[in-house]
Amino acid sequence: MRVVIDQDRCTGHGRCYVVAPALFSDDEAGFGQVVEDGDLDEGHRADADRAVNACPEQAVSIIIINHQEE
Amino acid sequence: MAPMTQGFRLADAPMARDRTAGWRFVRDQGEAVQEVDGTWLLTSPEAVRFAHHHPEIFSSAKAFDSLGSPVPLIPLAVDPPDHKKFRRILDPMLAPRVINEMEDSLRAQVRTLVSNVAGSGTCDVVHDLGRLYPTQVFLTLFGLPLEDRDQFIEWVEAIVENSNKDATAEPAPEVIAAAMGLFSYLQGHVDEKRAHPADDMLSRVLALSGDDGWSNDEVLGLCFLFTLAGLDTVAAAIGFVMLHLAEHAELRRQLVEDPSAVGPAIEEVLRLELPAPTTPRVVMEDVEVCGTRLPAGAQVALCLATANREPGWFAQPDEIDLGQADGGHLAFGGGIHRCLGSHLARRELRLVVEEFHKLIPEYELAPGAEPQVAWPSGTLHLTSLPLVFPAASRA
Question: Is A28 on the interface with B (CB under 8 A)?
């Protein structure tokens, strides 16, 4: 599982790093950026879901990595 | 879908005492509904998002033409592609890490305002906090003297009150005098800071040069927009947050016990009680929104307030529920014009609640008080919010 921010949609509401600070941080303009860029374990699932819901622009998404196909 | 009623007017919504009833009345008209004066309201989250995501069709610049401002209201009344240039400069000036640097000063200022009333056992939140604090924050941010606060408030209130009335009417002489007073005050400080830069936002804008440099009118327009959009809106939000905490003793005690719940509670009040419930746009070409065709040139109001109460989106659409505080509401708008001051506004609200609760943890509405919003009005704010509480001896 990975989290990504669609930079074309993000307009800097800054909710992702407020509700899920373990996964996101703020950049110098107040826009969110992914801090945990790699494959996340299921323990981060609740945080990731929270960020997806909290984004007013629907710019945050979760990508499921299928390890069988790697 | 055809509008369900003939003769819909937003002004007829029963808003003054109860926004739940008021916004339900509006949403029940349909997703895209035309007022008798010709303005279209987009009321559902889908319709509002569509407009947010098509700023080239839904012009914000054109929507503010009728205001007749002598200076460009930057960055709100600017469309793509120029808009990006201004936000690229302004966003970092109002980012959370910049506000962190100001927090100690902002906290001390609200503490003083609260201690001024804590000993008396009674206060009017609108008058004693809402009017004063956002203006102090603006003066602090822009590096203007705090002792000018009351004069500043006098000018801004005259102008904002007028803009909430019929925009087509000729402004009264005292409104023109207030606008002139505010402009010459701001121009004086712009000149002063150009000559003697200090460590504040206004000086930083003035220090920009080359392709990033701003004209004098653009700088004044920015100052003017901050005073029009950033003061009475935060004042109103302070009133709404404190109203709901005064009315919900259990929620208030939860916040006093656990200040980490303050942020979520503020989000829920913002979702339900929007100081700026609609934002204006003008349609630049014929466009279909949720099955309704809007003609080029149509005036549109994006109704954030009804979108935030959409039953299919929030499980308790008309109730405060901290469990849905992370739902991504649209109280600060969306798309490229997302409220520039949203991070600062949220911080101000949190500091007000935290400092109020430190000195005045128990409070309720004054007996007989029936707080209501001025209506009809472009922005929503309580006219008065009298509270009573045990007088604090610490103050």
Answer: yes
Q: What one-character-per-residue DSSP string does A7-55 give?
A: TTT------HHHH-TTTEEE-TTS-EEES--SPPPGGGHHHHHHHHHH-
Distance between CA atoms of B332 and B63, rounded to whole angstroms?
18
* B327 Cα to chain A: minimum distance (Å): 5
The most distant pair of C-alpha atoms in chain B lies apart, rounded to whole Å, by 64
Strands B40-42 and B299-303: parallel
Strand partners, B300: B40, B281
Q: Do the Cβ atoms of B336 and A11 come within 8 Å? A: yes
Q: Give the number of beta-carbon pairs within 8 Å between A and B.
A: 55
Q: What is the pLDDT of residues B312-359, one digit of tens each?
A: 999 999 999 999 999 999 999 999 999 999 999 999 999 999 999 999
**Would you say B142 and B226 are in contact if contact means Cβ atoms under 8 Å apart?**
yes
Name the residue among B354, B346, B353 with its Cα closest to residue B94: B346
Q: pLDDT of B55-74, one tens digit each?
A: 999 999 999 887 778 899 99
Note whether A56 contacts B: Cβ–Cβ < 8 A. Answer: yes
